């Protein structure tokens, strides 16, 4: 791989397992695992749903972009779970393309919705039909950014993490 592969970014729709799998990859590879949403919540002192409610989605998207830009300056190795919408911002796409090995966790929208539905995710709370439309809109973006895609529909998070780690090690050696 021509770009740096010492920073690994997990992208994909809500419910794909990015947060859980990043933790597992971090543990198995003995590298730090960061979660963009957690970093934003810590910095802001509010949960994501509260940030959406108080400041709106556009404000949250700027926070995602700024936080990702900050992380891209940190030396690797580390693994980062993005939020599902964090790879939509054009500036974030540039950062991902130039500073990260990018893995897309993919599954059909129905599967992801079942996993994502709940009060913590304001956009999943808008219902299955909105979720599916959003997933279809974002699909080409994830596809364009990904160095590798993994189908997470019917394999457990532990196995997803093992597959990704093995791919990452291969990418680092390439
Ligand atoms: N491969 C998987 N198979 C089944 N459930 C999973 C898998 N990966 C994650 N989950 C579960 O799905 C939910 C969403 O996972 P999470 O890591 O928060 O996803 P994301 O960060 O992509 O939104 C959690 O309850 C998690 O335990
Ligand atoms: O897809 C999105 O727009 C969002 C995904 C969430 O993260 P996960 O993908 O980790 O659930 C979180 O950033 C926020 O609720 C918005
Ligand atoms: Mg997450």
UniProtKB/TrEMBL annotation:
Statement: the UniProt record of this protein carries the keyword Nucleotide-binding: yes
Entry's EC annotation: 2.7.1.71
Compartments where located: Cytoplasm
A single GO BP: aromatic amino acid family biosynthetic process
Catalytic activity: shikimate + ATP = 3-phosphoshikimate + ADP + H(+)
HAMAP family: Shikimate_kinase
Family according to the record: Belongs to the shikimate kinase family.
UniProt protein name: Shikimate kinase
Lineage: Bacteria, Bacillati, Bacillota, Clostridia, Eubacteriales
């Amino acid at each position: 791989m021509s770009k740096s592969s010492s920073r690994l970014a997990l992208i994909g729709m809500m419910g794909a397992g990015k947060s859980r799998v990043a933790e597992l990859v971090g543990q198995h590879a003995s590298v730090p695992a960061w979660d963009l949403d957690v970093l934003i919540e810590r910095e802001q002192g509010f949960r994501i749903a509260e940030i959406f409610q108080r400041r709106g989605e556009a404000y949250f998207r700027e926070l995602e972009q700024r936080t990702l830009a900050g992380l891209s300056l940190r030396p690797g190795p580390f693994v980062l779970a993005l939020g599902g919408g964090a790879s939509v911002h054009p500036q974030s796409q540039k950062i991902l393309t130039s500073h990260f090995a990018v893995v897309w966790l993919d599954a059909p929208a129905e599967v992801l919705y079942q996993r994502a539905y709940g009060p913590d995710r304001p956009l999943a709370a808008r219902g299955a039909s909105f979720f599916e439309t959003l997933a279809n809109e974002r699909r080409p973006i994830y596809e364009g950014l990904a160095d590798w895609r993994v189908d997470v529909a019917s394999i457990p998070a532990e196995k997803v993490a093992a597959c990704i780690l093995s791919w990452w090690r291969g990418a680092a050696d390439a």
